[in-house]
Structure formats: C-alpha cells, structure tokens
C-alpha cells in the first residue's frame, strides 16, 4: 500500500512537470517602453498561471507555439487584432495601448478556455476616445482658515494620497475596465507640486512634504502611463495659494475681482513650471466658479494666461508637441472661449456635465443638449462628465441598463466621445464610502474599518467603462454578462445572478425619477435621499428652483405645482406626470426588495456585502414610499390652494403622516449602516436643510423636522376649522442699520409706492413686502449697471445685512442674459454663499410694472469698512438692516395683479 501511494505521488509529479509547456513571445514592436514591457509581463503572468513557460527570443522554433506582438498604425486608435495560423499567434496593436489591450484580451481568452490557448480570436477597439474616472483631492468640510477647493497636498489632509499600494489597486482596476484617463481634482495644486523662482513664498507645504509630493506624483504618473492611463490635473481659476495671498494682502479667490497682472503672472509661471516638470500630465481648466466666467474675462484668461503658460513650459523643455488641455464648460461661455483659443492652440478638448450633478435621464434635451452638440462640432473631442451624484449617494447604484442607455444618449444626443466619471457616492470622502461597518479583529482598537469606493461600487465603474468602450450591445447578451458577474461575486447560480441584476435595475430607476419630477436642483446643494420639506414640494420657486432640471434634464413632463393647476382647470396633462412617477417608484421598489429577498439564502460568497446590498434595496423602498406619500399629500394641499376647502387638507394629513412612518423605516435602516447621507458637509448644502458644520447629514437629524411638519400642519387645520385664523399675518418692517456709504451710489430712495429705483429711468415701485417699508435703497444708473460691475462701499459700527433684489426673468435654460444680474447660484458658483446670500429670503418681494419679479437675498458683513461687490447686470441694492435680524425665508407672493395665494404657512 505504501509503495502504491509513492507511485501515485511520483506520477502526479511527472504530470505536473510535463504539463508545463514552453511558448515563445516575440516582441516585434521595435519598442521596449514601460507600457510594452508591462503588457508582455501581464501576458507572461497569465500564461504561467495556465501552465505555460514564456520564452523571450527572436528565434523561431517549429516545435513551439509562438506569440508575435506587433504594432500596426492602420488599426483604430487603441485597437487590437488577434489572429492564429497553425502554432503562430499574433497580437497586433494600433499603438502601445492597443498592444496592452490585445495582450489582456489574449490572456482573458486563455483564462476562459481553461488552460488551452485561445482559438476564437478577434479584433476590437474602443468607441470613446477618453474613458476616465475622477479622484478629488478635496474634503467634505473646509480646512481651518481656508475657502472652498483650497486643500494643499499633505499627509495630514490626504493620508491616502501617499499610499502606493492603494494607487496600484486603483490603477489596476482602471486597467481591468480599460479606462485610459485619470482626473485629479484640486482647486490650486501647483503650490503643492512646483516651486517658482519669482514667487518662492507661494509654496504651501514644507520641504519634506514637497519631496513626498514629487515622489508620489512621479510614481502615480509613471504607473498610470504603464497602464495606458493619461493623468489629467484639474484646477480652478482664479485661485492663488494662501501664502501668496497673505504675502500680497489679497484673497485666495474672489469671484468679482478683475484680472490682476500680478495674479496672471503667478498663474502663468505656475503652469509653465508644472508643464516643464510633468510634461506627460494633461491639464483641465475650470474657468468658472472662482472667477466671474462672463464677458471677455474667461476668454482673456484662457488665451493670455493659461495657453501661454503651457507654451512657456514647452519652450523650457525644448518641446513643440502640445500636451492636451481640457476646457471645462462650467459657468463659462465655452463655445466663445474655444473659438478664440483654437487658432492659438490645437490640442484642446471640451468637457461638460451630462446631467448636472445628478443622474436623471439618459437623453437630455433642449438647450443643455444643444450646448453639448455645439461643443462636439468644434473639431475637438467633447467629453461627457457624469458629475457628483447628489441624488444617488450614499446607497449602492448599479443599473447596467440605465447606464448603457445613458452612454448611447451621450453619443446620439450630446455628440460626446469621451467619458469623465465621478464616484457613485462619497466623492468628497475619497477613497471611502459612507458605510458604517464593524471593525475587524486585526484592526486597531476602536478604529472603524472603512469600505473602499472602488471595491463597493465595482459595478458602477465597470458598467460605465464597458459601454464607453462599446455602447450598443445586445440586451440579452448584456443580461447574461452581468448575471454571470453577479453570480461569481456572490457565489450563486446564473439565474440567481439575474435576480440580483433585476434588483439593481429596478432600484436604479427610483432616484433619477424622484429628482427629475420633484426636485429643486440638479446640483449638490440638494441631498435627495434625505427627503424634502413640504414647502419645497408645494413652492419650489421659493428655494431657487433650477429650471434646467425640468426643461432639459428630464423627459417632457410636469412638476407637482403644474399638475395640480391643470387638474383644477381640467386641462390635458403633458408627458411624465407626478402621479405616474408616484406609482412607478413604488412598484419598482417592491420588485427590487422582492428580488433581493428571493435569493438571500442562496448566497455563498461575500455574504456581508450582499447583506449591505439587500439593506440598500430596503432603503430605496422606504425612500420611494416616503416620497410617493409626501407628493400625494402635496397634491391634496395644492388643491386646497384653489378650492379653499379644509377637507382637502384633512385628506392630506394621514397621507403625510404615512410618509413620516416610511421615513422612520429609512432612519432604522440607516442608523447603524451609514455615517452620513452626503459627503459634502459645508454651507453649500441647502436642501432639505442647511448643512452648516456637518449638521443635517443623517436621516436621524431630519426625522424630527418631518414630524414637526405634521404637527404644525395638524394645528393649522384645527385653527382653520375652529378658530378661523387668517392665513396671512402682516409683517413688521426691518430695523434699519446705521451705515455710511463711501462714494458708492448716485443717490438713495425710500422703499415706498411710487419710488423711482434707477437714476436714469422712470421705473418705480408698485407693491412691496411689508418688511421693506422705509428701507433706504441705493439708486444706481441702469445703463451703468449694464456696462460695469455694481459695488457699494460702506462702514458700520455693527454687523449688517445688505438686502439685494435680483430680478427673476423667465428664460430658457443656460441662455445668456445680457440685462439682469444672475442671482447667487451654487450650481455654478461655489462661493455663492460666502456671505449667506445663496438663499432667497423673500420671494416675489417687489413689483415694478413692466419688469420681472424681484427676489430678495441678503449679504452679511461684520462691523467696519466693507464692500459689496456684484457683477455686471441690473439689480437692486434695497438697503441695510441690523446684522442680527433673522429673516425667515418665505414667498410674499406679490404680482402686478395683486397677491397670489400661497400656502407655505400651513407648514411653518
């Protein structure tokens, strides 16, 4: 028996030895670049895994299989072709990336064929020129003493940036998904990466950190290059480093500041030094947000500072080949900028947000789609940006069908040929997700383990990159493809994988539909999963409704207020209606929960992650039912606006209570599962509640607010029934602040009926909100406001609030208004709330016959000498009030025909 066992062992050993086959790999590319060598190394590794020993030689051997690797520039960029003749295999790439992708495709087929060299060979090439993902070197809150986007590269601020193992994991995952670009986002990265001879004091980090930054940046870019990934460094304009600003006694960023020669010179030399030091890194330029982005300033900055800076860097390098520059079409007139720039610089790309800062529709329309189409026809590549997903975070999202149709829409509707993909959630908290999970035994005591975005949201990255490579794929084939991946992920059958896919795809419709039919904005000032106030549903204009969301980033349809109006007037409804969405999201959430529950006991792998996925499906259901019931109640409340019947309010009350019950379920589902709902926890967060100092970031914090709405609503109904309390209460005038103007205005006027508001027109006040009575407005020349920035310099001994009236004309989305000053808007201007000015304080507060409605915003200033700086365009400086005055936002509802009936008071 012992001899028999020994014989078996020897036979097995002999079989293992003889199972290893030799195969020749011939590099006929004529190149030994890092990317080519990396491609061959990856191929050899998979061959070894499958029982082959790779031999590198130029000699032929008739007894051995041969893999020849060549380059053929006739193939489509990054494309490859695999072929076989007898024992000779060929991998032909259009370029070095094509060789890399060809080697990976060969290796994948080898793995699938179970140790046999692949027989079914083919050719392939990507459709999109750029396929990239984004990583933000930014934080969820501001650093002390700094403003938005100002985050130097330091180990304290970004410890993960110095983790080489993590970077290799990220880059390998990108290569697996065939992504070829990596966007690094930061407001002003140059002061962390380059030193300037003329401005040595501008550096923001110490010498030791600077050396670490150099090492890491070279490591990241070189490892990315091996994998065919082009690193693109993004920056905002105009931002300077904090040490530079302090040295020159200026602000790091000031939107209304004109282009100063000093700042232009510093920026130009920073870019030149960066290009010289990192010639293989691209640049993405954001002209908007930190600079006005209007008039000719953005054109001048791009053509006289940015492009010359790049050219200076090339000259220092002795190079003539232009590195790519990506122009971000955000808060700027990108077509005009490109028209001026293309004669000066040819290697330009454009980039614009696909659905704003959310995911709402696969096929945008209207003027937003027209902007993308215009950019795509300039002769450069238009990149479609799937930006911060403010309606998806933090729950898992992975609907391949929705994503595939979105990429098809990018091609067919927008004319895009590139993808710039943000994380699915927690962008501001990279590399971690919002999940709260228990610490592992090997973790430090008290330390909470965090999930990585690239691991948790693998299906998000894989789906977008798969369809960026090729968009139009057979639906049945795709169902089978994703079902197999999910089955492998969770250790279940392919049919069970198909059930998981169903849950992903049903839940994947919920957040897009809810935001596009009930939301206020496509921007990250709204966190959809936290819910919405009743006043936000029944009077969205009061909260700065971003009409682009409904006009361009949704299928044709109706808002709640439009639907209620048409119902009362018995008019025909158009397109997608709120009632339709109410029914659909409930049905889809039911299907998602049923599907995920059906295969729970069949999971044999990654059980913890499956449990988290199942919980997210229940979160989607609780959220869907909460919104559905609240929107249903809102329709009954809106009906009261027309009927005046308290019975309509009584009908809404139990449904509103039901919506809160569903929200309680959401609180329970997230209580120990999530650290937060939104990863951006700054003053930019407005809806449903202001997110100052990290507040109102969790569902637990919102529950008392929604419970309070029900309690107030119930009391108001009782009052209407029993006490006959009037809905409208006259408000007292504001306390006027004592200020001294410093050569700021042509004259002043008292806010009263008949008061002329401009020095050079006869326009006068017809009606005004009670609080504004007797305020002293600053009288400007209307013509001068059209030509110059408006400013008011003043001094005060106490803090004050300056009330500014912004006209609200009805205009098409993203059409350029050459008359009225644009109101502060966080969708396009991250500094739009630095003085507390982003929120409409009094909507429809002033009526001037023949002019659009006027909304009041307030700017808060401390005691001392101050200057209110506004842009070009017609606006009203209404006066100064005490800085401690509490101005609760509301809609005065004034129109030329009198006061329109509003019902916000029912919940306040």
SSE class: alpha/beta
What's the pLDDT, averaged over the residues?
89
Major beta-sheet overview: 8 strands, parallel, barrel
Number of alpha- plus pi-helical segments? 25
Roughly how much helix do the residues carry, as a percent range? 25-40%
Morphology call: globular
Number of strands: 27
Strand order, main sheet: write it out.
7-8-9-10-11-12-13-14
The parts where pLDDT drops under 50 for at least 5 residues are 1-19, 439-447
Distance between the termini: 89 Å
Percent range for β-strand residues: 15-25%
- Rg over alpha carbons: 30 Å
What is the fold's blueprint, element by element?
Layout: H1 2-19, E1 21-27, H2 34-49, E2 52-56, E3 65-71, E4 80-85, E5 88-93, H3 96-112, E6 123-124, E7 130-136, H4 164-176, E8 181-185, H5 190-193, H6 207-226, E9 230-237, H7 242-248, H8 261-277, E10 282-289, H9 297-317, E11 325-328, H10 334-341, E12 348-353, H11 366-376, E13 381-386, H12 400-414, E14 418-421, H13 453-456, H14 458-469, H15 475-490, H16 494-507, H17 510-518, H18 534-538, H19 548-551, H20 560-569, H21 578-598, H22 607-643, H23 646-670, H24 699-723, E15 739-741, E16 747-750, E17 767-768, E18 776-779, H25 782-787, E19 789-796, E20 800-807, E21 842-847, E22 854-861, E23 864-872, E24 876-882, E25 890-891, E26 894-895, E27 898-899
Parallel strand pairs: 1-2, 1-3, 3-5, 7-8, 7-14, 8-9, 9-10, 10-11, 11-12, 12-13, 13-14, 21-25
Antiparallel strand pairs: 4-5, 4-6, 15-19, 16-18, 17-21, 19-23, 20-22, 20-24, 21-22, 26-27
Fold and architecture overview:
This protein is an alpha/beta fold. It is 39% helix and 16% strand. The protein has 25 helices and 27 strands. Strands 7-8-9-10-11-12-13-14 form an eight-stranded parallel barrel, surrounded by four helices. A six-stranded mixed β-sheet has the order 2-1-3-5-4-6, with helices on one face. Strands 17, 20, 21, 22, 24 and 25 form a six-stranded mixed β-sheet that branches. Helix 9 (297-317) crosses helix 10.
